[in-house]
Each structure stands twice: as structure tokens, then as C-alpha cells.
Amino acid sequence: MDKRNNNNIRLVKNGSRRVTNEDAEYVSPDEDLTGGEVLKRKISYQKKQKERRMQKKRRRIVLALIALCVIVLILLFLTPIFNIRTISVEGNQIVTDEQIVEKLKPLIGENLLRTTDGKIAKMLQEIPYVSSVDVQKKLFPPSVEVTVSEYTPAAIVRGGGKNLTVSSSLMVLEELNAARNKLPVVTGVELQSANIGESLNVGNDYKDSTLKTMLRTLEATGLLADIKEVNINSLTAITMNYDDRITAQCGSQLDIERKIRLFKEAVTSDALANNARGTIDLSDPGKAIYTP
Which residues contact 156 (CB under 8 A, 6 or more apart)? Predict the structure, then answer.
């Protein structure tokens, strides 16, 4: 037998197993291991090899998923498949359909997913009467459904030669050539800022908060439609004109909400005739004194 071949074989007394040159990758030349130790090393090596193959497989799967996601994103964002085709709007009563169509017309043909809800809401909130916007998107077919909430006109603020329609939160909704009969006219204020679509600034924080409280309370009590005028020229002598029949003398702005609610009880009381005329003094807290 060739001596060179003999040098590649080491016989180890370990049962019937032999350590051969096939085990060379698990055993270095200067190691003298038993067959059992070599077998353990071989099993460990094969396990590591299997783990490497699994890692490679997982990497291939991850790369395939990333590639798929990229393709999907391209389809969603860069192709006309998901371009907006229709827009429907509901909830508007004061704002006309023509105003809404004019604002949203540029959205037709834009990508649905690249068009944010905030962008759509901002476009509509450029219309002064729009207070809030709820946006719902549909992929099939690509469309947008918009629900609009509007400010309710609460009064006409007169000052500086202007007649401004405002909400109960003093949002300026529009400027009129003349006051509308169906809304109370607010007098006794100086307009510092009166931009449409912005909050009214009357230059006095006390008058601002008092007027807001009065309009909100009149709105909540259902008196708003019957109030003809609110005068807050003096915060110690606030007056209201009710149905051109009764003058409410509210006194100061203190407890103004309570005074208005007390006034509501007085004018709807059976003790007061439907066509009664005169004055109701509310300046004394907790009392409503009627004088014909």
C-alpha cells in the first residue's frame, strides 16, 4: 500500500469507527481526537451550515418582500390607477355646492394616497362658514367623501361703518351691506380686527368674553331669533332689545349668563302677557323686575 495514503489515515481505538481523511475539515493535523469527539464536531459543523443556509434563505425572502413592497408602492403612488375620480360632499346648508366644487375641483386626477386629509380640509376651510371637515377615502373606485360642519350665524356686529356676520364664537363669516332682520345687531364695540375667516377683535378682552357668553347663552336658550339688539357700549349698563317690545337692563357683565336665563323665564312666564311692553331689570342678581 502507498505510504502517502497511509499517512492520511489515523486509526483510533473507539469501537468500530475510524477517523479518516474525510474528517479533515473538522480535525486539524495537530489534534488527536477520538471518533466520538470528531462526530460531535461534525454534527456541530453541519448544524452551523444548516443555520447559514436558513439565514441566506431568510435574507432572500426579506429582499423579495422589499422588492414586492416597492412595486406595490410604485403602483399606489406613481400610477394613475388610484387617481381621484369623484368627490362627494354633504352637510353643507349655508355654503353652496358651487363654492365647494370650485375649491375641490383641483383634486380630481390627483393621487388618492398622496392627497392628505389635512390638505382637503384646509382647502374647504378657506370658505369662512366651514368650521370643520371630516374626510373619508375609498380605493375602489378612488374617491373622496367629505362631511362639512358649518358655523351658525349668531349676530351682526356693527362698527366702523361695517356690518359683520359672526358666529357665537365671534368668527367673522361675511360682511353685509346692511344688517339682516333675523339676527341681533351688536353695538357699542370698536373693531380692531375684522378679517373674514378670522376671530373678531373688539379691542377689549372683557367685551370680547362678555359678548361670546351672551351670544352662546342666547343661542342655547332659543332667544337669539327674538333679540333685535345687544348693546355693550358700557360693561356696567348692558342692554338687550327683545322683539321690539321689551328692554332688558342687564347691569354689569357679572353673572351675565344667569341673567339671560332668568330673562328667558320672565318673558315665557304666564304672568307676562304675550304682547307685554316695558322693561325688565336684571341688574339685581337673582331678580327680574318688570316695569310696563
Answer: 163, 164, 165, 166, 176, 179, 180, 183, 184, 185, 186
